[in-house]
Design brief:
The chain has about 140 residues and is mainly alpha-helical. Helix content is about 80%, strand content about 0%. The protein has four helices and no strands. The longest helix is centred in the middle third of the chain and has 31 residues, at about 35-65. The radius of gyration is 16 Å and the shape is elongated. The mean pLDDT is about 90.
């Protein structure tokens, strides 16, 4: 599976699982109710979807220019750190605003979620590639 179809399946699966996990985590950490946590998780998911599309487009463009193809452990770690770091930069102010807390407290909530999502992103991407195959940007060159 390649192209836009791959991206839509990826984002749908990734974010569906993420909303469930983030709702539970945010409710447990912040004391917010299930409804409020689910709304915040859904807002965060919408932001993450937009960031996902931007980040993965940029990452795959960079990846396509690399001499070594494939997704090594080092490349997968760089992908997870880049994605989650950028997302945290966006989400901390959103968490602070929505939950009515300071930036430090919002950062702590996000940091806790970040620890979970760093592992989740790595495992999800690895599993997704195993089930659906590598994207064209990472696949080994085919002999002519």
């Amino acid at each position: 599976m390649q192209g836009i179809q791959r991206k839509i399946v990826y984002v749908t699966l990734y974010e569906g699982i993420a909303i469930l996990c983030a709702s539970v985590g945010l409710a447990a950490m912040s004391g917010a109710g299930a409804g409020q946590s689910t709304v915040l998780a859904t807002i965060a998911s919408a932001i993450a979807i937009a960031w996902n599309l931007v980040f993965n487009t940029l990452f795959e463009a960079w990846e396509k220019r690399q001499a070594v193809r494939g997704r090594s452990l080092k490349r997968r770690i760089a992908h997870a750190l880049g994605f989650e770091g950028g997302l945290a930069f966006i989400l901390v102010p959103v968490f602070a605003w929505y939950l009515g807390v300071g930036l430090w407290e919002a950062f702590l909530y996000d940091a806790a979620l970040l620890l979970f999502f760093l592992v989740y992103t790595f495992v999800f991407n690895w599993g997704f590639d195993r089930v659906f195959g590598l994207p064209a940007s990472a696949a080994a060159a085919q002999p002519a």
